[in-house]
Write a structure and sequence with these properties.
heterotrimer; A alpha/beta (474); B alpha+beta (477); C mainly alpha (95); A: 474 residues; alpha/beta; Amidase signature (AS) enzymes; 2 domains; eleven-stranded mixed beta sheet; C: 95 residues; mainly alpha; 2 strands; 35% helix; flat
Chain lengths: 474, 477, 95
Amino acid sequence: MADDIQALSAAAAAAAIADGGLARAELFEHYRARAAADELNAFTWVAEDEPTVINGPLGGVPLAVKDLFCTEGIPSQAGSKILERYCPPYTATAVANLAAAGAPLLGKTNQDEFAMGSSNENSAYGPVLNPWDRSRVPGGSSGGSAAAVAAGLAPWALGTDTGGSIRQPASLCGIVGLKPTYGAVSRYGMIAFASSLDSAGPLTRDVTDAALFYRNLVGRDSADATSVAFPGPIDLPTSERLDGITLAVPTALVDGEGIEAGVRESFEASLETARELGATIVGCEIPSAPYALSAYYVIAPAEASSNLARFDGVRYGLRTEASTLDAMYTQTRHDGFGAEVKRRILIGTYALSSGYYDAYYGRAQRVRTVVSRELAEIFTKADFIATPTSPTVAFRLGERTADPLAMYLSDLFTIPMSLAGTPAISIPSGLSEGLPVGLQICGPAFSENRILDAAHALERAIGFDGAAARSGGV
Amino acid sequence: MAKAELEPVIGLEIHVQLRTATKMFCGCALGFGEPPNTRTCPVCLGLPGALPVANAEAIHYGLLIGLALNSTLAPVSTFHRKNYFYPDLPKGYQISQFDLPLCSGGKLGEVNIHRVHLEEDAAKLNHVGVGGRIDQANSSIVDFNRGGTPLAEIVTEPELSSAEQAGQWLRLLRTTLRTLGVSDVNMEEGSLRCDANISLRPAGSDQLGVKTELKNMNSFRFIERGIRAEVERQRALIEAGEEVVQETLHFDPRSEAITSLRSKEEAHDYRYFPEPDLPPVVISESMLSRAAAELPELPAAREQRYIEQQSLSAESARMLAWRAELGDYFDAVCEADRSLDAQAAANWVAELQGRLGDQEAEDSKVSASALAQLAALVASSKINQGGARQVLDQLVNEGGEPAAIVADQGLEAVGGAEQLAPIVAAALEANPELTERLRSGEMKPIGVIVGEVMKQTRGRADGEQVTALIREQLGLS
Amino acid sequence: MIDRDELLHVARLARLALDEDELQTTAAELSSILDHVATIDELDLEGIEPTAHIGDVEDSLRADQVARSLPREVALAPAPAIRDDGFLVPSPQGE
């Protein structure tokens, strides 16, 4: 029976509960036990009992939530020592929406500290291991969420994506990850990294699960002034073909250095599959893409430097006692933040400081305008842009920690969409040397229905099987 | 340099707490003396994950202020983050406005306005520790009730030239804001706070000298005294050949001492950048038309109306218009008796206010209808000025009806030829020598005769009428 | 690209204490990142407006309606130090 449950996608499990073939409590206990026995360090907190479940379209299928979402009375530490054991007095809108739709909270998942990282090695609570190969990283920053879903420790998970933090770990763990249109999902209660870039979205086993999850996640929230109503409902995808669809491939970018041969092979095979499904493949250019990375590494740290100023030892979290206010501030923040967070706070503070604002922040914001224009221009001629999600498969733990810049370069394909605020999905496109490769499909703002449809067609045709990873993890 | 050649240049920065129901960026009710930390929520405590949402009514109040100050209203206004660390600032930044304030330019009275922007107030720090004195305190307690209260910051151009002018203009601003209904404008309670930028320069120069900033003066008197003290301090420095240092200063009203405040962030690098959590505010036609429709008559317009429609003197018009409560009281007096001459009514209102000191006329024992009645009694010569002043004294002390007081105390004017003529005749008869001198054309002794008549009538006669009767009885032209 | 003094100034603005070895490594790392970031100088951005916010949000304002505040004990619960119903900090003036 456990194997049967384990084999069900979230949507299938919800259907099984709805028609009486599966008891909701049994499903919860199945995943609760697996999450509690987690050997990947994917969870930072696991529920002891099933919470009160609201009957709804998510059918009682339990949910793993990235640690940076506030959950009332439950540790919400954002992977940081400065928030160790911090329990907020309120719950994030995204989590509340999913709970109201019938997805009870299973546990909180590990992440890079304040979502800053691409390997999940920047967590104060230890690195997460990739279920495909435990000597490798799961990607980041939503590494715990991705590993939990890939290893079958959770049916699905909520993550966040600022520069690729849903898509890249989804790619490295062989699951589906959707970064929504900026503003489509409320950020209220999401501990902020970079406010103008942060988006919450699903990490799931398949595209149908992602659509089911996402349709219950979106919505205008009066508590988030930047949130917008999604125009129309999110549909469950049904497409099996790509007839009439044009996929644009940014040739120069994809042919660039640093892309592993196995990733390129898998990507090209995906394009061939798309052609077989009726799609037209065209080349395109995003000339600003290399600069987008630079702009991102100004804008995100700048916003982060301000967003993280509230961690000052006064109202919550860690405090290092000192006799003067300044010593208390500086020692608390020295002791509470990890190396990568400090690095970004310093970069961001520098970029905003007097005399440097125009050269760094001002220019970066202009690059952002250029990136948006270039993507919009492509979308006048093509339905989607397709790239590999990550230039590499999962790398070894510790392999890139010594070189922050090399780590940043792994976000090359995901960052332009983050800057433009446009939606993108990563789906598994195959294996390279036994490790998953991801395919990224992105469209214009609010094109999630079409993206999900196309991803669904490709997913069926590719026929990726993640069962191998789901047998491990505990 | 000779003393007379230096002139002060003063600019004011006024922080006004807006009287909305809720805070600037969250739904907490504004705090007014509640127990500490009972008016907070995730947003105004700066909890992780909380987001600000701007209060539409605060924007509306900002527009009202902009209209009242003849400012240019921004079609699109943005919020910025002003980053610095302080325990009263829960997020490590204050949400304020930077390059696109809600209102730019404008003018109130003779003073040009630089800008008006909206921001959030800081929380309250209570210093505790040894001795209880601020400079000896070693720890502080933060109360976030006030944190996040909506503030409008009004910045004038540096155009004021004296402490008195600054004080007067501030009263006009306060009246304007009170008339708008956007704030309690209570300096003692901190809903109106004023900083002054002060520098000196040679008279006639258009160069500005080094300025200092005098912080947080909490009454009109302190503002005037503080500015005066700082002007004198700078004057003494310059005259001694020393330099004024740009710094932030604190004025202690008790000792009149001016001390330097250590700055909040020594580097003063606030790293302003657009607040990503708040989209730009687009000021719609409907927002503008609502503000325009709600704009009440303001002091400047009221002053004009008093001059043009009620023929008040410029001095009376300004006094009544710039003190809205007094103007309202004056309007009530005129309303109580529409036959009254407006200037006479204004004079009696001034007479009353002179006796009340800091108390407002409407809070006194003298009702507007009583003052109207008093003015009418004078106008119809039922009592003379002296009698009326006696009645007013009693009204101020005990209240009551003027007519009844007049009757009780026998203050009716002794008037009319039939009453006065015999008294005048008797006075002339009793002073034959003076009467002779008057007859011969020497007018000096007439005052003595008038005085005699006043004595006989216990001051109730009208002096002019007595003089006329004396002339008549002596056959003088 | 960024020297020790600049780094100390920035760390001061950010209220971050840095150990001696952190100072060494961070200066080098920041310089390499900033060098990379400086490649945006190659782009001609003349006349291009900056993007501060993505998307058009109409009516992002909130009606002036009172919502319930947190009970004080809830507000104070996560505080590292409290006294007299408030958050206790070393005094800014006591230095």
